Protein backbone atom coordinates (compact mmCIF):
# COMPACT_ATOMS: atom_id res chain seq x y z
CA UNK A 1 0.00 0.00 0.00
CA UNK A 2 1.15 3.55 -0.67
CA UNK A 3 0.73 6.16 2.08
CA UNK A 4 0.97 9.78 1.01
CA UNK A 5 1.44 12.73 3.33
CA UNK A 6 -0.66 15.64 2.12
CA UNK A 7 0.92 18.26 4.37
CA UNK A 8 -0.46 19.81 7.53
CA UNK A 9 -2.34 22.62 5.75
CA UNK A 10 -3.37 23.77 2.28
CA UNK A 11 -0.51 24.12 -0.21
CA UNK A 12 1.94 21.92 1.71
CA UNK A 13 1.74 18.80 -0.47
CA UNK A 14 4.89 17.93 -2.42
CA UNK A 15 5.05 17.74 -6.21
CA UNK A 16 5.84 14.02 -5.95
CA UNK A 17 2.71 13.49 -3.85
CA UNK A 18 0.58 15.54 -6.27
CA UNK A 19 1.65 13.31 -9.16
CA UNK A 20 0.93 10.12 -7.21
CA UNK A 21 -2.52 11.42 -6.22
CA UNK A 22 -3.33 12.37 -9.84
CA UNK A 23 -2.34 8.85 -10.98
CA UNK A 24 -4.27 7.02 -8.23
CA UNK A 25 -7.30 4.94 -9.21
CA UNK A 26 -8.41 4.59 -5.56
CA UNK A 27 -7.84 7.01 -2.68
CA UNK A 28 -8.79 6.73 0.98
CA UNK A 29 -8.36 9.22 3.77
CA UNK A 30 -10.00 11.44 6.33
CA UNK A 31 -12.29 14.22 5.20
CA UNK A 32 -9.56 16.76 5.99
CA UNK A 33 -6.84 14.85 4.09
CA UNK A 34 -9.04 14.47 1.02
CA UNK A 35 -10.08 18.12 1.20
CA UNK A 36 -6.44 19.26 1.23
CA UNK A 37 -5.76 17.55 -2.10
CA UNK A 38 -9.18 17.70 -3.78
CA UNK A 39 -7.80 19.68 -6.73
CA UNK A 40 -5.35 16.86 -7.57
CA UNK A 41 -7.85 13.97 -7.54
CA UNK A 42 -8.50 12.74 -11.08
CA UNK A 43 -12.00 12.34 -12.44
CA UNK A 44 -13.15 8.76 -12.06
CA UNK A 45 -10.93 8.06 -9.04
CA UNK A 46 -12.74 5.96 -6.44
CA UNK A 47 -12.66 7.91 -3.15
CA UNK A 48 -13.29 6.43 0.28
CA UNK A 49 -13.78 8.74 3.28
CA UNK A 50 -12.38 7.15 6.42
CA UNK A 51 -13.60 7.95 9.91
CA UNK A 52 -11.70 5.10 11.59
CA UNK A 53 -8.35 3.62 10.72
CA UNK A 54 -8.54 0.23 12.45
CA UNK A 55 -9.31 -1.84 9.34
CA UNK A 56 -6.95 -0.42 6.74
CA UNK A 57 -6.13 -3.95 5.59
CA UNK A 58 -9.67 -4.35 4.26
CA UNK A 59 -9.26 -1.55 1.70
CA UNK A 60 -9.22 -2.78 -1.90
CA UNK A 61 -5.83 -3.59 -3.41
CA UNK A 62 -4.18 -0.59 -5.01
CA UNK A 63 -5.78 1.94 -2.67
CA UNK A 64 -3.58 4.94 -1.93
CA UNK A 65 -3.97 6.06 1.68
CA UNK A 66 -3.77 9.79 2.45
CA UNK A 67 -2.42 11.07 5.75
CA UNK A 68 -2.31 14.67 6.96
CA UNK A 69 1.13 16.14 7.57
CA UNK A 70 3.96 13.65 7.30
CA UNK A 71 2.75 10.04 7.75
CA UNK A 72 5.95 9.19 9.64
CA UNK A 73 5.33 11.82 12.34
CA UNK A 74 2.68 10.20 14.54
CA UNK A 75 0.84 9.27 11.36
CA UNK A 76 -0.40 6.36 9.33
CA UNK A 77 3.00 5.54 7.83
CA UNK A 78 4.00 4.05 11.16
CA UNK A 79 0.97 1.77 11.34
CA UNK A 80 0.80 0.29 7.82
CA UNK A 81 3.31 -2.57 7.45
CA UNK A 82 5.52 -2.50 4.34
CA UNK A 83 3.95 0.73 3.08
CA UNK A 84 5.64 2.86 0.47
CA UNK A 85 5.54 6.30 2.10
CA UNK A 86 5.70 9.69 0.41
CA UNK A 87 6.21 12.33 3.12
CA UNK A 88 4.39 15.63 3.29
CA UNK A 89 5.29 18.91 4.95
CA UNK A 90 4.71 18.30 8.64
CA UNK A 91 3.56 20.59 11.44
CA UNK A 92 7.02 20.06 12.96
CA UNK A 93 8.72 21.49 9.89
CA UNK A 94 6.34 24.44 9.82
CA UNK A 95 6.64 25.15 13.56
CA UNK A 96 10.43 24.90 13.35
CA UNK A 97 10.46 27.42 10.50
CA UNK A 98 8.01 29.80 12.21
CA UNK A 99 9.94 29.80 15.50
CA UNK A 100 13.44 29.66 14.01
CA UNK A 101 14.36 26.47 15.86
CA UNK A 102 16.65 24.05 13.99
CA UNK A 103 14.90 20.68 13.79
CA UNK A 104 18.03 18.96 15.11
CA UNK A 105 17.36 20.64 18.48
CA UNK A 106 13.88 19.10 18.73
CA UNK A 107 12.85 15.85 20.34
CA UNK A 108 9.50 14.53 19.14
CA UNK A 109 6.88 13.36 21.63
CA UNK A 110 3.42 12.29 20.53
CA UNK A 111 0.25 12.53 22.57
CA UNK A 112 -1.89 12.27 19.44
CA UNK A 113 -4.65 9.67 19.73
CA UNK A 114 -3.46 8.69 23.21
CA UNK A 115 -5.91 9.26 26.04
CA UNK A 116 -3.18 8.78 28.66
CA UNK A 117 -1.33 12.10 28.68
CA UNK A 118 0.91 11.16 31.60
CA UNK A 119 3.50 9.30 29.52
CA UNK A 120 3.74 12.11 26.93
CA UNK A 121 4.14 14.68 29.70
CA UNK A 122 6.76 12.55 31.47
CA UNK A 123 8.78 12.07 28.25
CA UNK A 124 8.53 15.79 27.45
CA UNK A 125 9.81 16.79 30.89
CA UNK A 126 12.68 14.28 30.66
CA UNK A 127 13.76 15.72 27.30
CA UNK A 128 13.58 19.31 28.58
CA UNK A 129 15.68 18.29 31.60
CA UNK A 130 18.27 16.94 29.13
CA UNK A 131 18.44 20.37 27.50
CA UNK A 132 16.35 19.52 24.46
CA UNK A 133 13.40 21.46 23.07
CA UNK A 134 10.36 19.21 22.68
CA UNK A 135 7.98 19.19 19.75
CA UNK A 136 4.80 17.67 21.18
CA UNK A 137 2.16 16.42 18.76
CA UNK A 138 -0.95 17.18 20.80
CA UNK A 139 -4.34 15.55 20.82
CA UNK A 140 -7.32 17.94 20.94
CA UNK A 141 -7.82 17.01 24.60
CA UNK A 142 -4.20 17.50 25.61
CA UNK A 143 -3.78 19.68 28.71
CA UNK A 144 -1.04 22.29 28.34
CA UNK A 145 -1.85 23.35 31.92
CA UNK A 146 -1.08 19.84 33.19
CA UNK A 147 2.27 19.84 31.38
CA UNK A 148 3.06 23.29 32.82
CA UNK A 149 2.15 22.13 36.34
CA UNK A 150 4.65 19.25 36.14
CA UNK A 151 7.35 21.61 34.84
CA UNK A 152 6.57 24.02 37.71
CA UNK A 153 6.67 21.25 40.30
CA UNK A 154 10.15 20.26 39.08
CA UNK A 155 11.33 23.89 39.08
CA UNK A 156 12.04 23.90 35.34
CA UNK A 157 12.29 27.36 33.80
CA UNK A 158 11.56 27.19 30.07
CA UNK A 159 9.43 28.56 27.26
CA UNK A 160 6.18 27.07 26.02
CA UNK A 161 4.96 27.86 22.51
CA UNK A 162 1.49 26.87 21.38
CA UNK A 163 1.05 26.69 17.61
CA UNK A 164 -2.53 26.36 16.38
CA UNK A 165 -3.82 25.69 12.86
CA UNK A 166 -0.35 25.99 11.37
CA UNK A 167 -0.50 26.95 7.70
CA UNK A 168 -4.17 27.94 7.80
CA UNK A 169 -5.42 31.56 7.63
CA UNK A 170 -6.39 31.34 11.32
CA UNK A 171 -2.86 30.28 12.37
CA UNK A 172 -2.06 31.42 15.90
CA UNK A 173 1.25 31.16 17.78
CA UNK A 174 1.35 32.22 21.43
CA UNK A 175 4.06 31.97 24.06
CA UNK A 176 4.14 31.37 27.77
CA UNK A 177 6.08 29.58 30.48
CA UNK A 178 5.25 27.05 33.19
CA UNK A 179 3.77 29.74 35.45
CA UNK A 180 1.70 31.30 32.64
CA UNK A 181 1.07 28.61 30.01
CA UNK A 182 -0.67 29.49 26.75
CA UNK A 183 -4.22 28.15 26.35
CA UNK A 184 -5.38 26.42 23.18
CA UNK A 185 -8.39 27.88 21.40
CA UNK A 186 -8.47 25.37 18.53
CA UNK A 187 -8.61 21.60 18.09
CA UNK A 188 -5.41 21.44 15.97
CA UNK A 189 -2.32 22.45 17.88
CA UNK A 190 1.23 21.46 18.71
CA UNK A 191 3.36 22.47 21.67
CA UNK A 192 7.04 23.34 21.73
CA UNK A 193 8.57 23.36 25.19
CA UNK A 194 12.14 24.00 26.32
CA UNK A 195 14.83 26.61 25.82
CA UNK A 196 15.56 28.01 22.39
Explained architecture:
The chain is α/β, with parallel strands linked by helices. The chain has 2 domains: 2-89, Tetrapyrrole methylase, N-terminal domain (Cobalt-precorrin-4 Transmethylase, domain 1); 92-194, Tetrapyrrole methylase, C-terminal domain (Methyltransferase, Cobalt-precorrin-4 Transmethylase, Domain 2, 2-Layer Sandwich), CATH 3.30.950.10. Helix content is 24%, strand content 24%. The chain has helices at residues 15-23, 31-36, 91-99, 117-129, 144-153; strands at residues 2-5, 26-29, 46-49, 63-67, 84-86, 106-110, 133-137, 159-164, 172-176, 189-194. Helix 4 crosses helix 5. The longest helix is centred in the middle third of the chain and has 13 residues, at 117-129.
Contiguous low-pLDDT stretches (5 residues minimum) are none
Order of SSEs, N→C? EHEHEEEHEHEHEEE
CATH superfamily of the largest domain: Tetrapyrrole methylase, C-terminal domain
As for the number of domains, it is: 2
Helical region count? Answer: 5
- Radius of gyration over all CA atoms, rounded: 18 Å
The first-level CATH class of the largest domain is given as Alpha Beta
Beta-sheet strand percentage? Answer: 15-25%
Mean pLDDT figure: 93
| Backbone structural class | alpha/beta
Given the C-alpha coordinates, what overall shape results?
elongated
Topology-level CATH name of the largest domain: Methyltransferase, Cobalt-precorrin-4 Transmethylase, Domain 2
- Largest sheet properties: 5 strands, parallel
**Structure summary, number of beta strands:** 10
Q: Write out the strand line-up for the largest beta sheet, numbering strands in chain order.
A: 3-2-4-1-5
Note the gap between the termini: 39 Å
- Which CATH architecture of the largest domain would you pick? 2-Layer Sandwich
- Classify the helix fraction into a percent range: 10-25%
Amino acid sequence: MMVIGVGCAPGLVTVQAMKAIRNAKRLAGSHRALELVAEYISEGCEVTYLTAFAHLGSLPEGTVLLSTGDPMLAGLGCTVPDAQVLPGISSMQLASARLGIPEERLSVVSAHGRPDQASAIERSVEEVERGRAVFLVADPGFSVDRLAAVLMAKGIDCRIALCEALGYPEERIVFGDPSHPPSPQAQMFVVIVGSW
